[in-house]
Structures are given as structure tokens and as C-alpha cells.
Amino acid sequence: MPNIPNPLSDFWDFVIGNTDDYNALGVWKYLLVALFLALIAASIVIAIKNWQEDPSQRTGSHLGTWFVRVLIGGMWFQGMLWKLPLPVSGGLQYWVEQMGERAAFAFHRELVAEVYLPYLYILNPIIVLAEFTFAVSLILGLGVRLIGVLGVIFVLHLWLGIYRPGSPAEWPWEYIFLAMVMFFFALHAAGRSLGLDAWLRRNVAAVRDRKGFLGTLFNLIG
Questions:
Q1: Within a domain: residue 1?
Q2: Helix (H, G, I), strand (E, B) or coil at 164
Q3: 3-state secondary structure at position 140
Q4: pTM, whole model, 2 decimals?
Q5: What is the 8-class DSSP label of residue 166?
Q6: 1, 80, 135, 215: which has the fewest Cβ within 10 Å?
Q7: What tens digit of pLDDT does each residue of 101-152 get?
Q8: Parent domain of 15
């Protein structure tokens, strides 16, 4: 009898690195599995520290925000995997080619043909790094206001890039929904809900009081 996947089995396969995207990476998949599990463990430790040290963090709202933030961070991590291996992933190349035919505006399609595809060996690593940064920021709750804004821009570019009808079909609202989630992470500074942004503001005076370059930077982006 064939093994029929379901959300629970899919989740477990992702956790242990038994997905097509992971398996395509060979032995390197174990490094990425370990990295993802380390990020989740760190996020839980950070959340517990915030919960213990700050009574104002002990609310269902903060707990719910933490859970959704980590979940979306995991989504970005999973989405990064099919853009590997470097320097050019076959999956990413396929969708960039789709963008060249399906982007909403002619100038965007020309940009894909003249810049994106010829220089995909440069863009592919940048895209992987961007999505990895989104994942780390959201899972740990670090610099979430900045990452939320950058995420909105990133997702809207995808929305406009795969806007026209084609095969496989894409529902444009998928990208709008994700952009809205990233927008609300930025708007409500979701890293301050059981995340590193909250811990830094509480325990690092330079961040709390906007002192010095780094203190001001982390205060603003988180």
C-alpha cells in the first residue's frame, strides 16, 4: 500500500530532512537539518527567557505572535531549500524563466531576459542568502521590523513576476497574503514578542536607550 502523505508526515519528513529538496543536496542536507533544529531550539530558549524575565511577555497575544513568526520563518527556510544547490538551481532557473513570460509589466519581462537569466549564477546565491536571512530573523525574532519591510518588497516582486496566467497556475493572492503577514510583523515589531528584539531592549542599555551606532541600529530594526 503506497505511503500517502499528510500534514503530520510532511512535517516530520521536513524535520528529519527526508524531503525531495533535502535529498537532492546529498550529505549536505544533514548540515541544514542541524542548522534548522538549532534555530528552533534557540528560539524556544529565547522565548522561555523572555517569559521568565518579563511578566508583560506572558500573554496569549505574545505567545501567538511568536508561534506564527517562527512558523513563517520555517516557511522561508523550507523555501530556500529548492533554490539549492548553488551556483544555479534548476528549480529557481525554471521559475525565473516563467517570470520572463508571466511578469505583469513588459519592462519586468525585459529585465528578466537581459539581467536575471544571464546573471542567475550571481543572483541565485543572493536570493538564497536573502531567504536564509528572513528565516533566521523570524525564527529568532531579531531585526524583525527591518526584515518585515524587506520581505514585503521581496514578495511583491514575486507577485508581479508571476502575475499573468500560465502553467503551472499561480494564485496571485498567495503572494498578497504573505506580504500582508510580513507587513504586520514589521508594523507590530513581532520580534518583541518572546524574541531577541525584546531581550535586547530589556537587557542591553545601548539598544534600549539608542546609544551608539549598534544600539541605535538594533533599536530601530527591532
A1: no
A2: coil
A3: helix
A4: 0.94
A5: -
A6: 1
A7: 999 999 999 999 999 999 999 999 999 999 999 999 999 999 999 999 999 9
A8: 7-221
